Amino acid sequence: xxxxxxxxxxxxxxxxxxxxxxxxxxxxxxxxxxxxxxxxxxxxxxxxxxxxxxxxxxxxxxxxxxxxxxxxxxxxxxxxxxxxxxxxxxxxxxxxxxxxxxxxxxxxxxxxxxxxxxxxxxxxxxxxxxxxxxxxxxxxxxxxxxxxxxxxxxxxxxxxxxxxxxxxxxxxxxxxxxxxxxxxxxxxxxxxxxxxxxxxxxxxxxxxxxxxxxxxxxxxxxxxxxxxxxxxxx
Length: 234
Description:
This protein is α/β, with parallel strands linked by helices. The chain is built from 6 helices and 10 strands, in the order ααβββαβαββββββαα. Strands 1, 2, 3, 4, 5, 6, 9 and 10 form an 8-stranded mixed beta sheet that branches. The chain has a two-stranded antiparallel sheet with strand order 7-8.
């Protein structure tokens, strides 16, 4: 049985704000809240320059117990809602793949926002040519057919110590991937925007000749999320 992401509800305004951010600012915002771990360790971009964000559609695999029959790895892609990010957990193994060009093609047709795999992917060239946001902890050419099968979807995943619940916001870019609990998204976005404003002011001051340590002290580098954006002048 599949379960659609529960949230957060990303309206057009919030999506536009997220599109201007990156994982670095969002990670700093999560640090400021002293929240549970948010980084999905070991995840790397396989299509450089792409960004994916949306509510998590979670997928968990398990190792196949051989019975002599043919077993497709999993059939779930047609149940993924548009705008969701598929988050796949195969224990981080690189022994066999959990994503390839066929899934990429269907995901693009369905308007899926991207895929993050705690495990291996293949057909990377085709996915790059398609421009689909794909992130993983490994790459291999070995098929998952007759090696792994779908355990379940719509379940909490433990990605190397970071728990991803269905409906959590997942955001991935060239820096890696992270998750934000659904109930924290708006506050994390607000703080991440403040972080970016603070760093922009520090950068501008430094490029104008101010010592970096002085610029950091002037513009609140120690607590950048407290900037409210009332005055951009320095």
